Amino acid sequence: MSELRFDDVSVRYGTRRRGLTAVAGVRLVVPDGEVVGLVGESGSGKSTLARAAVGLAPVTSGRILLDGRPVPLRGPRRPVQMVFQDPYSSLDPRMTVGATIGETVPRRDPVTGTALDRRTEVDRLLELVELDADLARAFPGQLSGGQRQRVALARALAARPDVVIADEITSALDVSVQGTVLNLLRTLLRELGISMLFISHNLAVVRYVATSIAVMYLGRIVEHGPAADVLGDPQHPYSRDLLAAVPESGHPAAPPDDPALRAVTDAEPADPHHPPAGCGYHPRCPIGPFVLADRDRCRTEAPTTDHRHHAACHYAASAEPGASHR
Amino acid sequence: MTTLTAAGPAPRIVESPAVRFAVRRGIRFVVSLWVLLTAAFGMIHLIPGDPVRAALGISASQSLVNSRRHALGLDQPVIVQYWHYLSGTVTGNFGTSLTSQLPVSRVIAQRLPATLELAASAFVLAIVIAIPLGTFMGVLTRGGRARRAELTFTTTSVVLGAIPDFVIGVVLVWIVGVHLQWLPVAGKSGLGSFVLPVLSLAIGPAAILSRILRVEMIAVLQADFVRTARAKRLPARVVYVRHALPNALTSTITLGGLLLSSLVAGTVLVENVFAWPGLGSTIVSSILAKDYPVVQGVVLVYGIGVLGVNLIVDVALALLDPRSTIRES
Amino acid sequence: MVAPITDRGSRRPSSATRWLAVLRTPVGACAGFGLLALIVLAVIAPVLWSARAGRTDVAAMLQGPSARHWAGTDNLGRDILARVLVATRLSVELALLATVIAVVTGLVLGTAGVLVGRRVGRVLAAVVNIAVAFPGLLLALFFAVIFGVGARGAVLAIGFAGAPAFARLAQTLVAGIEQRDFVAAARIAGVGRVRILLRHVLPNIAESLIVNASIGAGGALLAFASLSFLGLGVQPPSYDWGRLLGDGLTGIYEQPIAALAPGVAVILAGLAFNLFGESLAKGIGLTATLGRVPLGRAQRRAAPAEPAEPVADDVVLDVADLVVTLPGHHAPIQPVRGVGFRIGRGEAVGVVGESGAGKSLTALAVARLIEEPGRVDASRLRFLGADLLAGPPQVHRRLLGTSLAMVFQDPMTSLNPTRRIGGQLAEVARQHGGLSRGAALALAIDRLRAVRVPAAARRAHQYPHEFSGGMRQRAMIGMGLMGRPALIVADEPTTALDVTVQRQVLALLESIRRADGVALLLISHDVAVVGQVCDRVLVMYAGRIVEDLPAAELATGARHPYTRALVAAVPDMRTDLDRPLAAIPGRAPDPARFPAGCAFAPRCPLATDRCRTTEPPLETDERGRRVACWYAGVSEHVDPTAMTAARGGHE
């Protein structure tokens, strides 16, 4: 049983006057053995949330709990591990693959308490990520991108983690390799029963891996629910926007004729240094105050999340999917 | 990254990057100045033993030493001395020379102009040589073209850049002064006497600066925005001078600043080679004579000169590259 | 947060090999030899010539060079050459001592941040920042006052004066390494600070430090000569080069060689250290730069020009047998070899393929943006009826500048950071349209409005860094609209953008295309994007077009096994969740070593011996579709999952 719980977590950088709230009061649970996909645009705070869970970003308020206890950030046992986006930066070019993986192997098995032998562990992990045992003596410079990402995965698994955080782990890879890494990931998740927070900007990839999906916008989770529900019946207008942005065949629709609707679809992404008041999404919202006259409360009043899929939208219940949207 | 959304607050004056840059840069100047003053003050107190005794020699009577210590205020608590030093310096009072009994400020006032003229001329000459030369060589040798020209230029500039200015000075004295007897080699007398000291100071920095600029030009010419400029089908001259050069200069200037402030320090040596009546000869003779108040004052002046060069460099950078004003925040 | 990878850290030879390779370059060999000679001389010279250097001879004062005294004698009749040679030891010894002090102090200050935490590190960085602004000589003078005149004082002075520069260097290097994810990964794994410093940080900065220490030793040698020259360093009766130089200068009219000989020694020794450091630095960076092999003199055209076919009016771009040749490590490489296609007026053509397939080079080649030493050959390259291969590119400047628009991948780096957006657009109209400054800026603002940049008039006065990624890409497109483009060549225009912004940019391109009948050549690695935007898709592999088909048939009608695998490898919103994704085993071939026969054969599940020996031609069928595969017709139904059988470890 291992459940990662973000309990009202905020991460703030900089001074009081000129600061940046990267993560603002996030409540999110990664249940035991499940994969939560986290989607959102650059600057939405999804990577910061991930880094906070492993102690790389400072938690300003709130708690991050593993099975009800704070995630240990000191001592030999590190039950939360992370795999990074760029496999070229995440492996020390001067350490062999074996040394890199071996560094993370704990002295004793956290469950049984038996001493672990580094060599055999490294061999076992390489086998697990479907790499030849000979590669233990290779340096990262001799590996391809896909192989490097497998090594990074093996290093994370070496710590015998309960939860693994995967931050855009396929986006730096060539498309032909992406598939093999995703296949491997799914096999491992099934076999090892690890919980995972899977971060990606690519909805189709998240759909393929995750059991539930959380959508993040400007440091907040704006929608969260089972993958099929969120994708099939999105409640928050931003989730719908993301879904509509996934390229499908057929020419992209020309911009809408209504000038107000056109202005919001062309609006720039929000600046996290100056988040809008009220609902953070209102300057871009196709069902918000810039389009519909009677929706001024979006400008002033931050929405609660007591809607379907915990959607943070005043009109989540009343929103008709598809109709109000181009 | 993202700025100014439709809903963002209107930019206030304090938010303007230029103003923030000026304020931040001003604060840094003041802090550096304070560090410099403190270091100059601390210098005397870090000297092992009694500086007055060291200056006057073993034979001086204890009463003379004591009265001199009293006159210099060295018998007071350190913190009081520090305060006196800071307030004195701000009002232009740098103390009195131990050997000549003249106010240090007067010594500096006498000697500073010669050094300033020398440093400024060399500074200008180095830049006037380096920028066109570096740009030209960068364009000529971009993408591995003109290998022979590149090799010649790189070798020459490495060699010239590695020769210390005072050795260049000595060689120039020998060739032009002793051998050809064209120009005066000692003292300051008319324009002709400037040629050799300025050359010895400027050659090294000019060589290094043009080499750096060449490398930066080559890097910038491979940048995406230069490809954009070429895709606009602009004439080559416009691409090089208007698009590439300002960007190459931004990275050159930072290194160039260091080089130019070491040119300021280089005057010490070159003045001693050419018996130039500036601060450089003063500081050396004062160190040898253990005339610490003069040393202190001159070190301070050199330090301020260096801070000035750095300020000029940062302002030039801000004018050339608007991004530099928002960096480091 | 998708960031393009900059440092591929490609296969580098081991460090020992690279260090040896440095000594094999002419400059490196000279410097290495010089340094060795210097050290040998420093050891043996005092033993051999001390007596000779110290012997005064009143009878032989100020003599010129002779058989007995090769460099003459000084004012006490001592042999100048012997004195210069003997002085080597003291000069080198003191310089090395000072360097050691500088490097050790600097390293301690520079790496302290890793050990004692960020806050202390920041304070140290600020202190070092102030100190490093002061030139070494000034610091050395300052410390010389404190430590006193003499050799010991000068060693300490020069050592401490050099420390800030090394501290700064170490801080910069450490900061660069600390940003990399492998340090973060080690932290997560619970690796301690000391171990991170020793295992991860120091090994990765050691090379740079050694290089700079070598250059620093040269600097220390010169600094020491300076102090001694001023009389602040070595005191009589000891002497080093600086002392000899200072003494020689006073008598330069009587005996110039007494000043010149030590001067030459200082220069040579300084150069030996400097050049050694520089060639090491170059050697370490050397692997990243391309080795250059001359391309030879091939004729401009790969094939004799065909008799001009009657070209239909509606063909915007017509390319045949396009070959791009670039210099390589051993021999010239051809990343694009024989590409041909046509684009009709208003048509949208996509080019897909993996990295290294030659997509971007094809785009740059047709736009005539490949510079020397790269070379472009084609049997036909016509744009709006003009033969782009005829005459130098300048001839077509006006045509290309107004009718061909380019949009590049990274809007962050593709706009000039030091110039305002409006000016960057306006210069197109000033250059090609002869507009005045005011009129050109007005047109630029109008074009920014056309690409729906909000508050265009105000934003035209802003710099690129004040724009968001999507807005920058709009400005790039607006730049292309300053003329009257007939073709927009867009090279991965949305790869660096978020999906919602990607949609905005693609919609913008689409509306421009619709409104003005502009043709589009869209390069992308993303099959889904190309499938959505384009009418026709060219699939490239190993520098060739392997399939040319209507975009609508991508999902179902592809005939080349590579195209099918490419489509199946990318999950979309309809991918079956219960089945593994298709994978293409192996890697895309390196342009330096394209395999014989069909280049895809080593990764192809259908490959036979025929594929491995004979390259399939690009055949056109009756509907105008093209495919290059021996089994294009017979392999309609292959289970894509069959290709996952190969283990990923072999990729």
With strands numbered from the N-terminus, the spatial order across the biggest sheet of chain C is 7-8-9-3-10-11-13-12
Separation, N- and C-terminal Cα atoms of chain B: 13 Å
Helix residue percentage of chain C:
40-55%
Mind describing the biggest β-sheet of chain C? 8 strands, mixed
Strands of chain C, count: 13
Strand content of chain B: under 5%
What is the number of helices of chain B?
A: 12
β-strand amount of chain C: 5-15%
| Uncertain spans of chain C | 1-13, 286-310, 636-651
The 3D shape of chain C can be described as elongated
Structural class, from helix and strand content of chain C? Answer: alpha/beta
Rg of chain B (CA only): 25 Å
User: Radius of gyration of chain C in whole Å, from Cα?
Assistant: 34 Å
Largest sheet of chain B: none
Distance from N terminus to C terminus of chain C (CA atoms, Å) equals 26 Å
Largest interface: A-C, 92 and 80 residues
Q: What's the count of strands of chain B?
A: 0
Written overview of the protein:
The complex is a heterotrimer of chains A (326), B (329) and C (651). Chain A has ten helices and ten strands. With 326 residues, chain A is an alpha/beta fold. In chain A, helix 5 links the parallel strand 7 and strand 8. In chain A, helix 2 runs parallel beside helix 4, helix 3 crosses helix 4 and helix 4 runs parallel beside helix 5. Chain A starts with a strand and ends in a 26-residue tail after the last helix. The C terminus of chain A is likely disordered. In chain B, helix 5 packs across helix 8, helix 5 packs parallel to helix 12 and helix 6 packs across helix 8. Chain B is flat. The N terminus of chain B is likely disordered. With 651 residues, chain C is of the alpha/beta class. In chain C, the strands form two sheets. An eight-stranded mixed sheet of chain C has the order 7-8-9-3-10-11-13-12, sandwiched between helices. In chain C, a hairpin with a 6-residue loop joins strand 1 and strand 2. In chain C, helix 2 packs across helix 3 and helix 3 runs antiparallel to helix 4. Chain C is elongated. The chains are: A alpha/beta (326), B mainly alpha (329), C alpha/beta (651). Chains in contact: A-B, A-C, B-C.
